[in-house]
Structures are given as C-alpha cells and as structure tokens.
C-alpha cells in the first residue's frame, strides 16, 4: 500500500496532466459537433476491429471442436453416399436389383492422424484408433478427399496404416469418363503423383479425368477418389498408357481419416480363398 502511495506521489504531476488532457478531449467532443462525430466514427471503427480480432481468436481456439464435428458429419455422409452408390450402381442393367444387405455393407470409423510419412519408399500413417474401437488389419482407410491406404497392424488404441504412397500398395481404379479399370500404384518419389496402369492405348484418356475406386474392391467402397489424370504418354512398343495421377489426398495436411469396415469382407474372402490356393 505504501508503495502505491509513493508511486502516485512521485508521478502526481504526470497523472494530473493526463487527467487534464482527457478532460480537454471530452470537452472538445461535447462542445464541437464536428469533433464529436469524428470521435464517434473513430471509436466505432476501433471497437469493431477489436471485436473482430476477439472473435477470430475465439474461433481459432475452437477449431479443434469444429474439425471434430465436421469429421463426424462427414462420417454420416460417407455412409449415406456408399449406400446410395450401391443401391444405384453406375452402368448397371435396368433389370438389376441391388441386395439391401450388400448395399449396407460398409460402415465407417472416424479417427485422427497422429503421424504421417511422405518422403520414404514405403510410407505409413499412425491413427489414434485400434482394436478396442473395432479396427482390424486389412480395413481400408479414406479421407474426406480420397483413398488413404489400408490398416497394416493394430494395438488396442492405435493402428498403423500402409499409405497409398507405398511401393507395394495397389488399388483397383476406374476412369470416370471411359470406364476403363486398372490398378493404381505409387512408383515415384513425388508424394502427389501415382501411376495408373493397364489402361488400353486405344481408349481415349483426357487430362483432368477422375480416377475412382472400382467395384472390384472389397476394401473400399466404389467411387472414392484416387486422383485425377495429370499426364499421359504412349511408347511405340507398348499397348498400354503410362498415366500419372495427381493424388486426391494431401498427406501433408491430413488430420482426420475414416476407417472402412466391410461387413461382408470375411464372407467374400472365404469364398475366394480356395481359388487363390488353387492358383498357388
């Protein structure tokens, strides 16, 4: 308390000067309409700027909650889109009636990415959901923009995902315009480019065409973006295009992903197992 009294005592002249300045300014704005209007407009401008800054800071502090809400909204939308695509398949005969169980076979689990790689030959991601959340090895993983990869291994609360940017990862893809189907595989060191193979040179392929997951996938729902045609090249001695796709998923800014569970995958794999053993 004594220190406060000493402070005012030492600075009494300066404090008195400031009070007089404030009083003078108030008298000017009250007695002169021009300066009163000027003060009113200026004060409103700075109050508005302060409120805008305050709201921006508040919104930034709540971005995590907003992102989580959006991720769960996307989860519901993904389930609806997958179901609608199965109920109304592209290029299906008019007489084809989809099975309701088959159409509802995909469900999604939202998860947050806690680690991702893009600069290796074989890249992986780590997500914060594991076996306790119903995740198993072999499940597909997608983002809001496209294919991400496939679950490689799980612990109780975490999972490692083989990225689409992995030399051994392939996904059956379909060009939207031509309907041609071929495997997409990462064969470069560019995290934004993958190769689409086995597309006949006698089919028309245009730059910018979309490549999506085909109906031949048991891991991914059909119609999930893989990438867009970046460039095409034909060598004289080959019957297929060399096609580069711009990857749909931006792995450098990936935050939330959706793990895809195909309820009928076990049944499908068991049915195909004898055929695979016979081929071996």
UniProtKB/TrEMBL annotation:
- From the record, give the transmembrane residue ranges: 12-29
Q: Which InterPro entries match?
A: Cell/Rod_1, Cell/Rod_MreC_2, MreC, MreC_beta-barrel_core
Q: What keywords are assigned to this protein?
A: Cell shape, Membrane, Transmembrane, Transmembrane helix
Tell me what organism the protein belongs to.
Answer: Arundinibacter roseus
Q: Which gene encodes it?
A: mreC
Under Pfam families, the record lists: MreC
By sequence similarity, the record places it as follows: Belongs to the MreC family.
Cellular compartments per GO CC: plasma membrane
- Gene3D superfamilies the record matches: Rod shape-determining protein MreC, domain 1, Rod shape-determining protein MreC, domain 2
According to the entry, every stretch annotated as the Rod shape-determining protein MreC beta-barrel core domain falls at 113-261
Stated name of the protein: Cell shape-determining protein MreC
GO biological process terms, semicolon-separated: regulation of cell shape
């Amino acid at each position: 308390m004594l220190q406060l009294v000493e402070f005012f005592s030492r600075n009494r002249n300066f404090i008195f000067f400031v009070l007089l300045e404030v009083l003078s300014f108030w008298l000017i704005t009250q007695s002169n309409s021009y300066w009163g209007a000027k003060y009113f407009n200026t004060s409103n401008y700075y109050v508005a700027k302060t409120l805008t800054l305050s709201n921006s800071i508040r919104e930034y502090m709540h971005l995590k909650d907003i992102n989580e809400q959006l991720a769960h909204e996307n989860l519901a939308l993904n389930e609806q889109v997958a179901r609608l695509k199965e109920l109304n398949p592209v290029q299906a005969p008019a007489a084809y009636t989809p099975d309701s169980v088959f159409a509802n076979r995909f469900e999604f689990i939202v998860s947050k990415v806690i680690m991702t790689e893009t600069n290796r030959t074989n890249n992986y991601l780590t997500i914060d959901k594991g076996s306790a959340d119903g995740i198993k090895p072999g499940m597909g993983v997608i983002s809001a923009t496209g294919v991400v990869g496939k679950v490689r291994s799980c612990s109780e609360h975490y999972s490692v995902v083989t990225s689409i940017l992995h030399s051994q990862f392939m996904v059956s893809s379909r060009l939207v315009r031509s309907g041609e189907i071929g495997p997409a595989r990462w064969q470069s060191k560019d995290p934004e480019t993958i190769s689409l193979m086995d597309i006949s040179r006698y089919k028309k392929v245009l730059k910018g065409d979309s490549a999506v997951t085909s109906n031949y996938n048991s891991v991914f729902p059909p119609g999930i973006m893989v990438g867009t045609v970046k460039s095409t090249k034909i060598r004289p001695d080959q019957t297929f295009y060399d096609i580069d796709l711009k990857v749909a998923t931006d792995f450098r800014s990936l935050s939330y992903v959706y793990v895809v569970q195909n309820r009928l995958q076990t049944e499908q794999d068991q049915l195909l197992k004898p055929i695979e053993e016979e081929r071996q």
